[in-house]
Amino acid sequence: MERGISHLTLPGDILDQNKISPAALSVIRTLNSAGYEAYLVGGGVRDLLMDKLPKDFDVVTNARPETVKRLCRHSMIIGRRFKLVHVTEKGTLIEVATFRKGNTYEDSDNVGMLTSDNTYSNDITDDAIRRDFSINGFYYSPADNVIHDYLGGISDLLHEKIDIVGDPDVRFSEDPVRMIRAYRFSAKLGFGITPRTRSAIFRNITDLAQVNNNRMYEEFNKMFLTGHGEASFQLLMRDGIMQNLLTDMGPLIKSRQFFDFISCCLRNTDARHAEGKHNMPHFLYAVMLWPLTRKLYLKMGTVPKYSSLKETDRMAMAGRIVLDRQSVITKIPEFVAQDIIDIWKMQIILTNEAVMNDQEQVKTVVWKEIFRAGLEFLMNRVHMDENLERIITFWTDTYYNHIPQSLRTRKALVSSNKARNQESRNSRSEGVRTRRNASSGKRSRTRKTGI
Length: 451
Ligand code: ATP
Ligand code: MG
Description:
binds magnesium ion; 2 domains
């Protein structure tokens, strides 16, 4: 049921004050001292309420952007129609927004969707009802140490619910990105999406195609690279949304091979994130689009016109076709596209016995910049194709023999390869490959495939 504005205040002491960014507090103090309201808002407060360390802190105020810029040193106004102020304080970037009323959230220049007026407001409740989910609408005021909840957010937080603010059909058609944000938060927090929110997503999901592809690229990266990729993927697959994010999947989207391969790669990506390592978009896209690209590459091999091409050229051609199509949904920057194609070409080179038997070629290959990513990608494929194990061992050994210690992270490759081999051996000795589903704890069978 849609809820109206209600006002609940909670004591600020329930937040762990030590986890609040001193930079955000300092910006708020500056604005308060000049007589303006200012609050910590959004995911920062939500995460603190859940005892998590927030990724970033956003500030909202009734001061206009020009005033914020004047009051805060090291600040600049960004955006044209939808102005925000970036304040750099104690080396940390804090985004400061001004209360607004109106229908849309993002800069219409960016979103590429029809928008109506976004006018500034002095009323915090105008700002609250424009937020996407109730759990994203907490306002913490450090001055009086109080958290304001205007949207029933605390109840949803305690009941572990993702609930859209206002009428779901209206809110999703205003900004379809909110639909995939619901899955991101559901995966990140382990919360369920309320039935009214979820059924409106099913009704409106095709509107996602209208969203600007640059914005979709950013959302896609946030969804899969920031530590909850596997859970996001599995929720999106459960609800049949994944095909709205990937191009031309057709029946492939329903194949067990696709599901297992992507789940397994994303599990590794999440593990890297947990270790504090940076995950790169080129690797993510190489993974996501590999089943489709590989299928196209193999198909081209049966057509005389293409089968005469060098295998790496054929792979590059298949890859380019797939990436151009994908870019209609998520605009992949050209430098990322180049790296993706190089990773895919590397798959041909690394599995070529003639190359492996030629010392000169081997040396050239291991010195290539994309070699590490190509080998890492091949390691992900080993779960689906045991025949690759010998090849991976060959290239890993060669890498250590040829590349000096100072230029590589030996520990990282050895241990990840060992862990992978160990896991493969364990699952083989069980007779079938089994996989523990991290989110449900269920065990499921994974067929050996050739992805
Ligand atoms: P994260 O921890 O992933 O950063 P977040 O909730 O802070 O999560 P942001 O994308 O940083 O998410 O956005 C900050 C806040 O801005 C959100 O909490 C929400 O209140 C609001 N917001 C962001 N995007 C939208 C949108 N498309 N529609 C409505 N509100 C939005
Ligand atoms: Mg945030």
